[in-house]
Amino acid sequence: MSAENYRDIIEEFFIDIGCQEALEDSMRRIGRKLGKPTDALSIPRLNTASRDNSEWQDMRDGFRERWPVEHAVYAYIRPTAPGELYTGLGTGS
Q: Can you say how many angstroms the Cα of residue 88 is from the centroid of all Cα atoms in its chain?
C-alpha cells in the first residue's frame, strides 16, 4: 500500500475500516455489514483523561511525519461531520 494506491486498495478489498475514537460505532457498523448481531455490543471508555492539546498536537504531527500513508488512510476513513460515520468505502470483495 502506498500514498498513490491506498484509496483503490481500500475500495477494492475492505468492507469497512474502524476508527479508535469511534470504536463502538465502528464495531456496530462492521458487525451489521457482516450480518452479526450488534444490539448487545457495548465498549466502555476506560482510562480516559483530559490532556493538554498542545502535547497531543506534537504527537500527532510526529505521527504524520513518520507514517504518512497510515495518516492518509486515517484521514480518508475518519468521519467528516459529528454523527456521520465513514463515507466513501467500497463493498469489499
A: 13
- The answer to whether residues 19 and 77 touch, using CB atoms and an 8 Å cutoff, is yes
Cell of 15: 468492507
Cα separation, 73 vs 45, in Å, equals 24
Residue 93 identity: S
Stated as kind and residue range, the H or E segment containing 33 is: helix 23-33
pLDDT in tens, 74-89: 888 875 433 444 444 4
Amino acid, res. 67: W
Alpha-carbon distance of 21 to 82, in angstroms, equals 12
Start-to-end CA distance of the chain, whole Å, equals 17
